[in-house]
Amino acid sequence: MSVAFADTVRSEWTKFRTIPSNIPTMLTAVALMVFPGALTANGASENYQAASEATRAVFDPTYISMYGGFLFAQITVGALGVLVVTHEYATGLIRTSTTVVPRRGRLLGAKVATFALIALLMGWVSSFGSFFLGQAVLGSGGAPTASLGEPGVLRAVVGMGLLWALVGLSGVALGSLLRATMSATTVLVAVNFIIPIIGPRLLPDGVGAWVQTYWPIQAGLQITTTVQNAERMLPWPGFGVMAAFTAVLLIAAFALFRSRDA
Amino acid sequence: MIEITDLTKRYGNKTAVDGLSFNVHPGRVTGFLGPNGAGKSTTMRAILGLDRPHAGSVTVNGRAYVGLPRPMREVGALLDARAVHPRRTARNHLLCIAQTNGIPAKRVDEVLQVVGLESVARKRAGGFSLGMGQRLGIAVALLGDPKVLLFDEPVNGLDPEGIKWIRELMRGLAAEGRTVLVSSHLMSEMAQTADHLIVIGKGKLIADIGISEFIRQGSNVLVRADDQERLAAKLTEAGGTVLPGADGALIVTGLEARQVGKAALDAEVVLTELTPQRSLEQAYMDLTRDSIEFQASAA
C-alpha cells in the first residue's frame, strides 16, 4: 500500500468516525443482527418440536441463528455504505475531497477499503455474536445446536461477516453511481431486500424460484448454510455470485467517478 | 505561477470558457473579475482538475494539478466554504482533509489559530455563521502552506470586519511571495485588494491589466469653465474625449487632471471647477457591457 493511499484511508476513517451518528448506527446494526437473530432462533426451536421428521432432517441451527437478524442488519449496513459517499455530495464536501485527492481512483478506493474493513469487522462481531446467542437459545428450547468445530459451521459464520462487507460495498457503489442518498438507498433496499425477500411471493413460480436461487444476495447467503438445499447454489459459488455482482457495481462506480466532473 | 493556455470548457451546448489564456504571477494579488456566468468558477475548477477541459491546458508551477503528488502543499483553494458536514467539528473537518496529504494534526491547530477559530475548534461546523464558515474554508486552503492560493468569491456575504480580514490576509500572502488568485464580480472589492486584474466575459479574456493602469483608464475629470466650447476644443486637441455632464459640466476621459489644467491654460479660459473622478465601477461596466448574459432591460 503506497503512502498516499494509506494517508487517504486514514482520512476516510477520520471522516467516518467524526460524523457523530455513524458509530452508533453501526452498533445498532450489530444489535439488529444479534437480537432479532435470537428471536428467530427462539421461534425456530418451538417449530422444531412440532416439525415432521423430514423438516427436522434439514434443520440448520447455524443458518437459523444468523439469517433472521441479517435481514434487518443488512439494510443498515448497506445504507451506511451509501451515506459514506452521498453525504459528501449532499454537503458539497466531494469537491474539496476531489481537490485534495485529485486521483479519483485513490479517493474512491480508500472509501471502499475503509468501509469494507469496518463492515467486515462489525459483520464478524455480529455473525459470531448471533451464532453463539442463537445456539444458546436453540439449546434451551430443546432444538439441536451447532458448534464451530462441526463441518461447514466456521465457514458459515465467517462467511456471514464477508457478506456484510459485500452488502456494505454494494451500498458504497450505489451511492457513488447515483450520488443521492434517497435514490441510492431505495435501489439498495429494492435489490437486497424487496426483490429477493418479497419478490418470490409475488412473482410467477418459475421466476420466483430463479430469484431465490440466483439473485445475488440469495445466492450469497448460501455461504451461511451448513445443510445443502439441492435446489440452491453451493456455498462458495453462491458467494461468488454476490461477490461478482458487487464487483460489477464497483467497477461501474470507479469508471463513472473517474470520468464525471465533480 | 498559474499558466492557462487556450482553455475551453463546454457544458452541453453551452460554452462556459472559450479559448481563455492568461498567467497568474507570484508576489501579487490577482483579481479575477467578470459578471456572473462569465466563466470564473469554471476556470478555477479547471485549474484544480475538478472539470476536464475540452481543449487547452492549465499548469500550476509548470505541472498539471492532477499530477501533483501532494497537491495541498502546492495549491490551496477556497471554492465553497459551506461544503462542510454540519455535524463534524471544525477541527475534525480540517483533520480529515489534512490527513489526505499527510499533513500533521499540529498544522491543523496552527491554521485554526491563523484564522481565529481556535476557540470554536471543537464546535460543530453546522452552527457556524457565514463569516466563521468562510474562515474555516480559508483554513482548508492554508493547511498545506501552499505557494499558490485560489479564492472563489471569498467575501460573499461577509460583514465589513470579515472583508477587511480577508483582504489583509490575501495581501499578506502575496507579500510573502505567493501566487494569489481571487475571483469576484465586484469591482469595488478588487480595487482595494488586487494588484493586477484579469477580466473575463462570456468565457473570453477582456483585460489582463495592472490595477494602476486600470484606474488610470477608468478615471475621468469633471471641469467647468467660463468658455466651455473653447475648452472642449482644446481638450479634444490634447487627445481627450469630452462628454456633456450634469448642469453643463464637461466630463473628460483620457486625460489626467494636470493635463486638463494645462489645456485650460493653453485655451486661456478661467476654470471654475476641476474635479478628478475615479469611477472604477463604471470603467468595469463599460468593459463588460457586451458580455453580460442576463441583462435587465429598461422598461
TrEMBL record, chain A:
Domain of life: Bacteria
TM spans (from-to): 25-44, 64-86, 107-133, 153-178, 185-203, 236-257
Keywords: Membrane, Transmembrane, Transmembrane helix
Designated name of the protein: ABC transporter permease
Annotated organism of origin: Nonomuraea deserti
Source species taxonomy: Bacteria, Bacillati, Actinomycetota, Actinomycetes, Streptosporangiales
Automatic annotation (TrEMBL), chain B:
InterPro entries found in the cross-reference section: AAA+_ATPase (IPR003593), ABC_transporter-like_ATP-bd (IPR003439), P-loop_NTPase (IPR027417)
Keywords: ATP-binding, Nucleotide-binding, Transport
Classification via SUPFAM superfamilies: P-loop containing nucleoside triphosphate hydrolases
GO terms for MF: ATP binding; ATP hydrolysis activity
Keyword match Transferase: no
Domain ABC transporter: from-to ranges: 2-227
Domain of life (superkingdom): Bacteria
Family that this chain belongs to: Belongs to the ABC transporter superfamily.
Name listed for the protein in its UniProt record: ABC transporter ATP-binding protein
Organism: Nonomuraea deserti
